[in-house]
Amino acid sequence: MVNHFPFLKYLGNRYVLASVLFILWILFLDNYSYLESRVLDKQIEELEDNISYYQKEITKDSIKIKKLKNADQIEKYAREKYYMKRANEDVYVIEYEDDTNPKDDTSDF
């Protein structure tokens, strides 16, 4: 049988067999296996993407907060978002039929 399959001669060596079993153990069966580390690396990448996204959102929000410290900007924001008005004026909201996109809350004010 060794004549037909020459690689069996090497698998008969106990050091080669122990090395192959060790490599299989490390790759697939261990708690810190290669497959498990790939899954954890993907999760780390997703979390790092979330960190960068939320840091960008924090900077956007901090800019909005700085703008809202001005009384004129607060009035402008209240008029645009909540349709507030002064005592002596009327507010008319015009909506078009073909306007399918509602106004985005992240718009600049």
How would you sum up this structure, described in words?
This protein has 109 residues and is mainly α. The chain folds into 2 domains: 1-30; 33-85. It contains 4 helices and no strands. The protein has helices spanning 7-11, 14-29, 34-67, 71-82.
What are the key terms here?
single chain, 109 residues, mainly alpha, 61% helix, 0% strand
Average pLDDT, to the nearest integer?
84
Rg value: 32 Å
What general form does the structure show?
rod-shaped
Main beta sheet, described?
none
Order of helices and strands: HHHH
Strand pairing plus helix content: what structural class?
A: mainly alpha
Number of strands: 0
Total domain modules: 2
Number of helices: 4
Helix content: 55-70%
Poorly predicted residue ranges: none
- What amount of the residues lies in strands? under 5%
Cα-to-Cα separation, first versus last residue = 81 Å
List the helices and strands and how they pair.
Blueprint: H1 7-11, H2 14-29, H3 34-67, H4 71-82
Can I get a quick summary?
The chain is mainly α. The chain contains 4 helices and no strands.
